[in-house]
Amino acid sequence: MQTKNNNKHTIANKILLISCLSTVLGLVGCQQEGTAEKAGQKIDQAAEKAEQKIDEATEKAEIKIEAAKESLDQKTDAAKETIKESSDASKAALESAGEKLGQTTETAGQKIEEVKESVVENAQVAAEYIDDSVITAAVKAAISGDSSFKASTIEVTTTKGVVILKGTVDSEHLIERAMNLASNQKNVKSVQTDLLVIVPAK
Predict the structure, then answer these.
(1) Contact, 54 vs 11, CB < 8 A?
(2) Which domain holds residue 22?
(3) What does the alpha-carbon distance between residue 31 and residue 36 come to, in Å, rounded to a whole number?
């Protein structure tokens, strides 16, 4: 608004200066012609023209100022829209990155859990295998160390602490004895027997 008023005053001052010069020249012309009436007419005409020029210049200045204001408003609105779009795009990108990071973290967590479970399972299997091997060896040693089984053929296998006896013995008594020897070994959970009694020919 202040710029608009300054423009008006500047234009008005220039036009007023022109009017004054015209008036002076008119007065000089009147003296040469020698009539005061003509001088008055010229002054009136000069003043009227000056007023018209001031009005025209003021109107043009107002039109230009209004056009400049509209252009500035349009550019401001466009800048606001661009900033908003850029802000929305940045927000969307951040949300997308956050979701991907969350998914990656979740996937990594699941894989870590799967690996842990696998390691635990493998460790358990390995421990059971070692325990079964130790049990099998202990049962075989106990049976082979007993002189009652010299004529017997006995195979020993162990699965998860369960001992299985297969083979032949020469009496029912030895089946029971073999089962007792096996069940007395450390970490044995139970004993199953597939032993057959075969009496040797005399």
Answers:
(1) yes
(2) 2-98
(3) 8
Domain shared by 63 and 144, yes or no: no
Kindly state the DSSP code that residue 201 receives in the 8-state scheme: P
Q: Which of 139, 164, 162, 135 is nearest to 149 (CA)?
A: 139
Note the pLDDT tens digit of each residue in 74-121: 887 887 888 777 777 777 777 887 788 788 777 767 775 775 666 445
User: Taking a C-beta distance cutoff of 8 angstroms, is the pair 178, 151 a contact?
Assistant: no
Give the residue carrying structure tokens 């979701």.
Answer: 99
Number of domains into which the chain is organized: 2
Q: Which of 143, 200, 145, 138 is nearest to 174 (CA)?
A: 143
Q: Decide which of 30, 63, 98 is a domain's last residue.
A: 98
- Assess if residue 82 is contained within a domain: yes
Using DSSP's 3-state secondary structure scheme, residue 96 falls into helix
Residue type at 148? S
Residues 89 and 7 in one domain: yes
| Alpha-helical regions (H) of 34-159 | 36-144
- Return the percentage of the chain with pLDDT > 90, whole number: 29
- Cβ distance 22 to 46 under 8 Å? yes
Average pLDDT over residues 115-141: 72
Between CA 179 and CA 189, with CA 184 as vertex, the angle to 5 degrees is: 80
CA nearest neighbour of 196 among 174, 177, 169: 169
